[in-house]
Amino acid sequence: MYGSPEVSLLSKEGDIIIGGAFSIYSQISMSFLSEYETPEPFKCSRINLREFRFVQTMIFAIEEINNSSDLLPNVSVGYRIFDSCGSTLPSTRAVMGLMNGEENSWRKNCSSVHAIIGASESSSTIAMQQISGVFQTPMISHFATCACLSNRKEYPSFFRTIPSDYYQSRALAKLVKHFGWTWVGAVRSDNDYGNNGMATFIEAASQEGICVEYSESISRTGSRENVERVVRVIRRGTAGVLVAFLAQGEMDVLLEEVLTQNLTGLQWVGSESWITANYLAEKRYAGILTGSLGFAIRKAKIRGFDLLREFWETTFGCSFRSGTPGTKLCSGFERLQDADNAFTDVSELRISNNVYKAVYAVAHAFHGLLKSWKINGCFCFVIFSLVAEQLQKVNFTLQSGERVHFDENGDPAATYELVNWQRNQAGDVVFTTVGKYDASQPNWNQFTMSNVKITWAAESWERPLSVCSENCLPGFRQAIIKGKPICCFSCVPCGGGEISNTNNSAGCSQCPSEYWSNVDHSKCVPKVIEFLSYGETMGALLTAFSLCGASLTLVVLCVFFRFRHTPLVKASNSELSFLLLFSLTLCFLCSLAFIGRPTEWSCMLRHTAFGVAFALCISCILAKTITVVMAFKAKRPANTFPQCSAPLQRTSVIGCTLIQVFICVVWLVFAPPFPHKNTVYASEKIILECFLGSPVAFWVVMAYIGFLALLCFILAFLGRKLPDNFNEAKFITFSMLIFSAVWLTFIPAYVSSPGKFTVAVEIFAILASSFGLLFCIFAPKCYILLLKPERNTKKHLMGRNQSKTQ
């Protein structure tokens, strides 16, 4: 042994010695010293009442075991407790003292402890474990939460009764996500506890879609300038939530500087180290921390522990011994609820219970050794690895009903209570449980909230916001801003046919083919179905023109029928005129088949009826043209051509029409038109149209009508110089010019017109060509029949003929 040996602060001999390392005293923070003060190196001078409470808990548990007849009967348990001073170097000296033993011990041959309880800090625990682990001495920590201590390869004999920060950090990430805080600040202790815990939190937060604006570290022994700088960073930050993964020493330093710079309005989210520290709830810090949220170890009740004589006497300033000068006698009816000091801090029983469980775990491990190895009360030469094996197997239930066991990493079950700093009716800060976290549950059910109202920062009842960018409402999607974290984004409207129905949607969803986005782009609605209907203005006008044309044709038909015996009507070939008027009526009426919702029958009818009606019409005109030309040539003396007879006219009309009928029948049999929902041309609506089935058949029908019209035009053009009384050919020529112009214009207009306008163009072509034929051929005759009856005589017609032929 080099140097002077360490001496335990508290000790008691026994067959089994349990060591303890607690931060009964702690170092004074550099931040609390003035610029002229220099602390003595490693000098611990500040008493820590909470750690003293842990010492009392350990002693209480050992005495309770010694008084038990069921656990370790006839075996005495002793203890040796050292001060770790809350720092690495003193902790190392403490563990060396525990391993070396003491010179004045009556157990000279086995002076080292059999197991160690402690320490409260992760860094101190790691330093102690690296020494005790050489001898495989079991060590159980009640408050060291660093996830690194779960590494069984590095720390095979380490156990703890507090969950690993691996779970707490993830619980904090779920907590922040639950309240919609996606933009937070973070501050941590600059040690193993803070650095490892914060690294795990940032990783878990990133998986939850949370961004950390800044992550700063402080140390209670660091410079004051660094603490001032960290508080300035927090003040300049835009995050309204601060996640403080701090040990109590660093929390004290930070809060002092926060008070100095008057930093208020932050929503604090704390780690288990300080979230239930009662001394922080005093008036000095209450204005800053009221509304804080954080996960704490579950509450526990240690039966009899809160009624220890010294606690009672200290709390109420009385004594159970009569005759004590200057002290009143304790009645036993004093109310603990009215007391307010470190001993009555019920929340401290959260961690104190961990010390209690650790002592009982060691006792149960040695009890198991007694049974399995038949040890007769001598534990001096027990192999430490055997104790560690027994600790791994322990599984018992405390009087409170809590089960104690360790997993393969030496960790307990990870269960937490979510506490909220609220004020009671007396105005004091209390730690109210508002939720819980259980890592053993499925991921979706690990974090649950209680039906308890939460107090938020600045004692507000309204939950604060902490986001880098305002929420994107339904109908918008997030767009990442280059060079900034993913939580900072702009809101971009969804495109046509896309929706987002939640806030902060990462992308927009495409609507199904027959649906379109509403005005707000928040839901898909059925697309507007477009077709040329009778109810709209354009449909109504086209219908009116169609009926007007059909009616006018019937009027002309009636006029011709009324004057059917007159020379003019007879000279115009009355039979063909009536058939032509009938076919023109069909031409006008067939346009009605193009208006209205397309159906299977209407699609087949509209194009075939149009084709046959116009073929009949042009066939009649062709027959009239041939009749006029042949009649004129038959008048010449040298002409031997016979006049066209009525049967020949009928045959030509029927033959020409039947060819069109045949084309239409073939079309309907092999590739008939059918209703079609066109979603390609206009993505925001459905154009209900008649698909041609066979475009080739459609253009063959059109070509045949064009062929007949061309024949009529040629023949009429050849007969344009006939005498006036026989000169119906020049009106037919003019009508064919109009007909051809209309349908030649129709082709490019039909191909380029969108949606229902395609149908409107076709109807317009039908009506325009029909009106052209009606007026060009029949208007001059009706003018003579109705307004110039003196010209409707055979003599007049013949006279004009003679005068022009002389």
From TrEMBL:
The chain crosses the membrane at residues 538-563, 575-596, 608-632, 653-676, 696-719, 731-751, 763-786. Residues 538-801 form the G-protein coupled receptors family 3 profile domain. Pfam families: 7tm_3 (PF00003), ANF_receptor (PF01094), NCD3G (PF07562). It is a multi-pass membrane protein. It is found in: Cell membrane. InterPro entries: ANF_lig-bd_rcpt, GPCR_3, GPCR_3_9-Cys_dom, GPCR_3_9-Cys_sf, GPCR_3_C, GPCR_3_Ca_sens_rcpt-rel, GPCR_3_CS, GPCR_3_vmron_rcpt_2. Keywords: Cell membrane, G-protein coupled receptor, Glycoprotein, Membrane, Receptor, Signal, Transducer, Transmembrane, Transmembrane helix. This is Olfactory receptor C family, h1. The lineage of its organism: Eukaryota, Metazoa, Chordata, Craniata, Vertebrata. It comes from the Eukaryota. Gene3D superfamilies: 3.40.50.2300, GPCR, family 3, nine cysteines domain (2.10.50.30). GO terms for cellular component: plasma membrane. PROSITE patterns: G_PROTEIN_RECEP_F3_3, G_PROTEIN_RECEP_F3_4. Belongs to the G-protein coupled receptor 3 family. One of its GO terms (molecular function) is G protein-coupled receptor activity. Its main location: membrane.
